[in-house]
C-alpha cells in the first residue's frame, strides 16, 4: 500500500485526470475503485454492511482515503488471505496506472 501511496501521493490534478494505462477511465477512477474494494474487505472483516466510499471532488484526497481504508482493514483483524488479496489488488492498481 505504501508503494502505491508514494507513487501517487505527489500527483497534481492533471496526472489524476489522465487515462489509466490499462483502461478507458481516469487514474483517479482506478484508485477510487481500489479504495472501495479495500473498504469492502474491511467491512466484511468487521462483519459490518458495505458502504459506498464517497467520490470526492478533489482527487488529491484519494491517497488519504486509501490510507484510512487500509488502516481500517488492518484494525479489523482481517485474515492473512484477505490481506494477501488486498495486496494483489494494490499491485494490479499500480500496474494499471
% residues in beta strands? under 5%
**Overall domain count:** 1
SSE order in H/E notation?
HHHHH
| Average pLDDT | 95
How many strands, which pairing sense, and closed or not: the largest β-sheet?
Answer: none
Give a written overview of the molecule.
The protein has one domain (about 1-10, about 20-95). The chain is built from 5 helices and no strands. The longest helix has 20 residues, at about 25-45. The mean pLDDT is about 95. Helices cover about 65% and strands about 0% of the residues. It has helices spanning about 1-10, 15, 25-45, 60-75, 80-95. The chain has about 100 residues and is mainly alpha-helical.
Descriptive labels:
single chain; 97 residues; mainly alpha
List the helices and strands and how they pair.
Layout: H1 2-8, H2 13-17, H3 27-46, H4 62-75, H5 80-96
Summarize the structure.
The chain has helices at residues 2-8, 13-17, 27-46, 62-75, 80-96. The chain is mostly helical and 97 residues long.
Amino acid at each position: 500500500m505504501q508503494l502505491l501511496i508514494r507513487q501517487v501521493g505527489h500527483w497534481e490534478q492533471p496526472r489524476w485526470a489522465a487515462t489509466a494505462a490499462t483502461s478507458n477511465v481516469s487514474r483517479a477512477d482506478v484508485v477510487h475503485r481500489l479504495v472501495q474494494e479495500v473498504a469492502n474487505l474491511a467491512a466484511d472483516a468487521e462483519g459490518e454492511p458495505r458502504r459506498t466510499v464517497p467520490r470526492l471532488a478533489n482527487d488529491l484526497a484519494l491517497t488519504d482515503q486509501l490510507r484510512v481504508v487500509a488502516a481500517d482493514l488492518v484494525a479489523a483483524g482481517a485474515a492473512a488471505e484477505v490481506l494477501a488479496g488486498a495486496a494483489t489488488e494494490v499491485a494490479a492498481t499500480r500496474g494499471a496506472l
